[in-house]
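[audit] Reproducing an earlier prediction to check determinism. Same input, same settings, fresh worker. If the tokens differ from the archived copy the diff job will pick it up downstream; this log only records the rerun itself.
[audit] input (156 residues):
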Amino acid sequence: MERRRFVAMAAAAAGAGAIGWGDEGGAKRVPLNIDIQPSWLTWVTAVTACLRALGIDCDNVDVAGQSGYAFHMYVNSTVDVSGPTFVPWEELTAGCRNLGRSTLEFRMGDSSAKDDRTPGEAVRLDIAKREIDAGRPCVLWGIEMPEFAAVVGTIV
């Protein structure tokens, strides 16, 4: 499935909700309750939503603390809103394991090198589809905007 079609079916923005689809057109959705606890840190929001759906009793504070996200601060020379995105993402998933779930992380390469990222688009969407087919929500970066989202549905 191409990225544009994947994005076109999104029901909500990353920071405030879960991305998913209804039952029309052969869509699949995880059979779990998705409880969104909005925050300014969309990785924390999306991960918390997924963990809670999978039966982990946690909130945004637990996820931010256990992952170490709560303890990172970056102020660049222009002092802008990019600070929360300068985080060692590969270190955060250990916090999910501390809360009781295993993780899989897939990186597509340098965001400034578009040619390096193109092949990864199909792989990341295939991983998301596989997780949804197994009844598990997952977290993706950059579905519609440069933010994280809890993905709860796919198009078959």
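[audit] rerun output stored. Observation attached for the diff report: The helical segments are 3-8, 42-53, 60-67, 89-98, 114-133.
[audit] end
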